[in-house]
Specification:
The chain has one domain. It is about 20% helix and about 30% strand. The chain has three helices and eight strands, in the order E-E-E-E-H-E-H-E-E-H-E. The strands form two sheets. It has a six-stranded antiparallel β-sheet. A hairpin with an 8-residue loop joins strand 6 and strand 7. It starts with 15 loop residues before the first strand and ends in a 5-residue tail after the last strand.
Length: about 130
């Protein structure tokens, strides 16, 4: 079976991005700023047009150790330093990136990550162990 190559699309402001959070980044039932990391091109998320929270969770190596939060695209874009880009992969049409999170440690990275803690919404919350 041949894999389909998907074209990148414009994600509308009313879109939602799902983000997987490992249990080690959840303290007192809240996501800590260190959970928000840019890996190369940006922070990897899934666009709700092509994924559900459950499907995003199942992409984790160990789904039972992860939660899913969402980010409303309009709230991300309202922060001038952040951008949302659809970046489909062969095995994940929903794959998208949040760009603009500094990779270098410092005040800007800390402030950007802290900002993300203010705008996320829980989708699937694992029970703390």
């Amino acid at each position: 079976m041949q894999s389909e190559i998907f074209e990148a699309e414009e994600i509308p402001d009313n879109g939602i991005l799902y983000y997987r959070v490992h249990k080690s980044y959840i303290v007192n039932n809240e996501v800590i700023p260190g959970a928000f990391r840019s890996r190369g091109d940006g922070m990897s998320t899934d666009w709700n047009k092509y994924s559900t929270p459950e499907e995003s969770l199942l992409r984790a190596k160990v789904p039972a150790e992860n939660s899913i939060i969402n980010f409303p695209v309009t709230k991300i874009r309202s922060r001038s330093a952040l951008a949302v880009i659809h970046n489909p992969e062969i095995d994940n049409r929903a794959h998208s990136l949040i760009k603009g999170i500094p990779e270098v440690k410092g005040d800007l990275q800390t402030k950007t990550r802290a900002l993300l803690t203010l705008i996320y919404v829980w989708e699937i919350k694992i029970s703390p162990n």
